[in-house]
Design brief:
single chain; 332 residues; mainly beta; Beta-galactosidase, Chain A, domain 5; 9-stranded antiparallel beta sheet; 6-stranded antiparallel beta sheet; 27 strands; Gal_mutarotase_sf_dom; Galactose mutarotase
Length: 332
């Protein structure tokens, strides 16, 4: 563990690196951020980020963070639970709550509970009312290298009152180390997706990907010059007790990333109009539009307001467990 000059929640941010000799990953306590990931035989970082750790308090606040307690957008910044209406921080254009609002878990300095050579566990307490959400909640996020080519995240969150919980890892991936996603292709094991309005809010419809621009059941190119622009939830199997393959991202080099998840959805965001404000990235390029692909396994967006969506409601005295697994496959 390395203390950094940056502070968060009034305490020093720390960096910790885990390695198994083939795969290594570096994390910041700010936001439980996956800052850097390296694979033996590949000369560049595979996740978009920066050695400038202070940038994670600004333009890179979501890059690699564990976002929550309710990832994605909540329409109107409100939701009702057991007859009580709750108001949240409308940090998305004043119209919606995004990733838990301005006090979301990406802004918090997590504690390091366990640190070993090949795994680290971060913990965080969220008092009742934080960001407007009910319940005293405790969260543990374990990142573990479970094989020579695999990183696994297990999130366990508990509450003492009925609430909503829906975490998502928010890493941006670029497998070629270039300034954008040119040369990458994407495959998603989803027959349905959630249409969104121009502000990014889901409409409530569940649409078939067949005969639409959102059919990624077979691998297709993504990045500059391709359509559609992506900031959409793809609907996976509704009963996923164990992580199942969901997404395959492949670079021009042939290196591929296979993402498996226990969750019923995955938000795919290509950063077409985003980026990192020109912050210099690990690979020596400014982090700009199409810098990488955010692959965010999670419950469906706006689930607190959509009774027909898979629920993210958690009852008092219970806990939820979410698993994401990233496996890297090098070309023969």
């Amino acid at each position: 563990m390395t203390p950094l000059p940056d502070t968060c929640d009034g305490t020093a941010v720390q960096r910790v690196t885990i390695s198994n000799g083939t795969l290594s990953a570096s994390f910041l306590t700010r936001g439980a951020i996956l800052q850097d990931l390296r694979l033996q035989g590949v000369a560049h970082s595979l996740t978009v980020g920066s050695p400038d750790t202070a940038a994670y308090a600004g333009p890179l606040c979501y890059f690699g963070a564990l976002v929550g307690p309710v990832a994605n957008r909540i329409a109107g910044g409100t939701a009702t639970l057991k007859g009580s209406k709750y108001e949240f921080d409308r940090n998305d254009g004043g119209q919606a709550t995004l990733h838990g609002g301005s006090t979301g878990t990406h802004t918090r300095n997590w504690d390091i509970d366990i640190a070993r050579a090949d795994r680290v566990t971060f913990t965080l307490s969220l008092p009742d009312g934080t960001g407007g959400f009910p319940g005293n909640r405790t969260v543990a996020a374990q990142y573990a290298l479970t094989g020579p080519d695999t990183l696994e995240l297990t999130v366990i969150a508990a509450t003492d009152a009925a609430t909503w919980i829906n975490f998502a890892p928010h890493g941006f991936w670029n497998l070629d180390g270039g300034p954008d996603l040119s040369g990458h292709s994407l495959q998603i094991a989803a027959d349905y997706y959630l249409p969104a309005d121009p502000t990014g809010l889901v409409t409530g419809a569940v649409a078939k990907v067949a005969q639409s621009d959102f059919d990624f059941r077979a691998a297709r190119p993504i990045g500059p010059g391709t359509t559609p622009e992506l900031d959409h939830n793809f609907c996976l199997s509704r009963i996923r007790r164990d992580p199942e393959p969901a997404v395959v991202l492949t670079g021009a080099s042939g290196l591929s990333l296979h993402v498996a998840t226990s969750e019923p959805g995955v938000q795919i965001y290509d950063a077409a109009h985003g980026g990192g404000g020109g912050i210099m990235g690990h690979c020596g390029h400014p982090i700009g539009p199409y810098c990488g692909l955010a692959i965010e396994p999670q419950g469906w967006p706006d689930a607190p307001n959509r009774p027909g969506f898979p629920p993210v409601r958690v009852e008092s005295g219970t806990a939820v467990r979410q698993i994401t697994r990233w496996r890297f496959v090098q070309p023969d």
